[in-house]
Amino acid sequence: MIGLRARAQTTGCCDHCTKIIVMAVLPLVLYPDPRLKQSCSQVSSFDKHLVRLLESMAETMYASNGIGLAAPQIGVQERITVVDVSPEGTALIELINPVITASHGTTPSEEGCLSIPGFRETIERATHVSVSYQDRTGNQQTLHAEGLMAICLQHEIDHINGTLFVDHLSRLKRELFKKWFAKQQNAPSRM
Ligand SMILES: [Zn+2]
User: Fold this and answer.
1) What separation in Å is there between the alpha carbon of 164 and the centre of ligand 1?
2) How confident is the model at residue 112 (pLDDT cuts 50, 70, 90)?
3) Structural domains present in the chain
4) Between residues 15 and 115, the one the model is more confident about
5) If we measure between CA atoms, which residue out of 144, 50, 59 comes closest to residue 97?
6) What pLDDT, on the 0 to 100 scale, is given for residue 24?
7) How far is CA 92 from the centre of its chain?
8) 3-state DSSP helix/strand/coil % of the chain, to nearest 5
9) Which of 72, 81, 184, 185 could lock 156 by a disulfide, CB 3.0 to 4.6 Å apart?
10) DSSP 8-state assignment for residue 130
11) Alpha helices in 23-141, H assignment, sequence order
């Protein structure tokens, strides 16, 4: 999900430096890539490869000025997402195998997606959600969220189920989206 944060790049010179070296900003999978429509697999190995993936996902999210990123957006079909809705980019949460266990209320939500750059539209989301998930060590966690955090979690958990925010559009708005997308395809390349 796209945010409005302008984040200063942080650097370090400590025992984490090795990690910084292996972290990478990964290319984003863009609509209409079919990988964005697939439901992802459950994560069962909580190992160093997962840690490396989580760190690369966070780096990619921050570099893209995002407030959330799901694994299929970097071509990994696993149930993993990272979110950080804080203005400063200092409240990263890593969610593995997240499931929305409760939700209530409805609110209009204007959203954009890193996989559909340039398009924003308003859909309806729950105002409050409870999410159960595992952290990077495999421990079970629960999160109760509202506001932007609740919306971001719904957007990202949709991704690992193969659902994009444009799938929630009304028929009329979806037609407008298709027209907008066709126009982008025909426009000269924006490098
Ligand atoms: Zn998205």
Assistant:
1) 6
2) very high
3) 17-186 (3.90.45.10)
4) 115
5) 50
6) 85
7) 12
8) 35, 25, 40
9) 81
10) E
11) 48-63
Q: Which of 94, 124, 156, 175 is catalytic?
A: 156
The two tokens of residue 180 are 């907008």
CB distance 59 to 24 below 8 Å: yes
Give me the mean pLDDT over the 55-64 stretch.
96
Is 156 one of the catalytic residues?
Answer: yes
Q: Are 169 and 179 in contact (CB under 8 A)?
A: no
CA of 13 to the centre of ligand 1 (A): 33
Contact residues for 67 (Cβ-Cβ < 8 A; gap 6+): 1, 2, 3, 5, 61, 83, 84, 85, 148, 152
CB of 118 closer than 8 Å to CB of 184: yes
**Residue 169 contacts by C-beta under 8 Å, 6 or more apart in sequence?**
121, 123, 177
Give the tens place of pLDDT for each residue, 141-180.
999 999 999 999 999 999 999 999 999 999 999 999 999 9
